[in-house]
Predict the structure.
Amino acid sequence: MSGKTDILVIGATGFTGHLVTRQLNNHRDRASFTFALVARSRSKLAALAADLDLSAQIPLITLDVTQVDDVEKVVKTTKVVINTAGPYWLWGTPVVRACARNGIHYIDISGETPWIKDIIDEFDYLASKTHSVIVPSCGFDSIPSDLSAYLSVRTLKQRLGLNVETARSVTAHKFQGGISGGTLRTLYTHFEMVPRQKAIASLQDHALSPASGAASPPIKILYSMPYVTPRIFGSFLLMSPINRSMVLRTRGLLEVNPSMRSLKYGPEFNYEEFLVAPNRLAGAIMSLTVLALGFCLSASSTVRWLFKRLVADNVHGPSEKTMQEGFLKTTNVTSSVPSSTHPETVAKTVIRIRGDPGYLCTSVMLTESAIALLDTSKLTPLAKQGGVLTSVSAFGDELVTRLEATGRFEFETNILET
């Protein structure tokens, strides 16, 4: 292979990797970039290429990501890495290390807060020196949450001025989609292999943020959306810890970097989110069910073994029909801190996604993020510097523009009249 490819997909033969490859190959700007595919199995790569009718010019590379020297050599052949090979707790660190060392940009779909905390601690400074942009959680975890809060804050600043500070921010997700074995195996890995103290530490307020801030609301059995009518009720969402952590990392990065302070959320900003339920009773039952499952997986190795053997190892991902019929509606409301010049003001943002958010549209989010990294001149000042960032702190408004151009994403934001 002569010269660098623009994008390298690691884990290309997995469920999400397959979708990312398809998305790249069919992209509206396909002629403007090159890409290569990486997996452990040569035969599976060949089968993927045949299934998608890929050009013979697309490199197919076999790699064992536990072999550090091999990872380094492969990463040096590209500009941007899309890593879909999880669980990242097991397989992700060598790839991030190689990217940070060599100034290569990196994105993934990790929802593993303890691992993300580790890579921030280990590689953030190094990446800022090599100008490597590392953005974990570039899918359903956690782009809709991060963007919805950001767009609400931006709308408040446009109405009230750049110095306005924000307070309460609440997001409600309503979605339909499927699940894959890889996601379930990541859940198993979290409870089976991550040290308990490390897992607990990663759940603390602002654990991923460079700046401390207001305390987050506690976990609830029943959630509700403030400021809107009719009331929206919901349950605890399994993704909420990672999404909250990434939103608060965005808030912290904007707070401590002078080049981003016109976008800062303020010290009183706090965030929570939930899964929309049909009514109060359903919300409470759904919360209790999820929390009980989490307790059982945490407390019992037998339950974990049964979960892996009977559930995770037997789920192979949603069908194409299920993915096409899926959807996401993310609603965020964020309030301003009242001052002598303006009362409390509330902004509302709605993101609508056509397609399964966890897989089909996660592949879209990954693809658009990767292509955006090919030209950092359109991105934020932090992206030009490098480091372990978030979707908002790296891509800013460019990601909104790119996602809207796909035809699968709609963004609407306004001030609520009170």
In short: Residues 280-299 form the longest helix (20 residues).
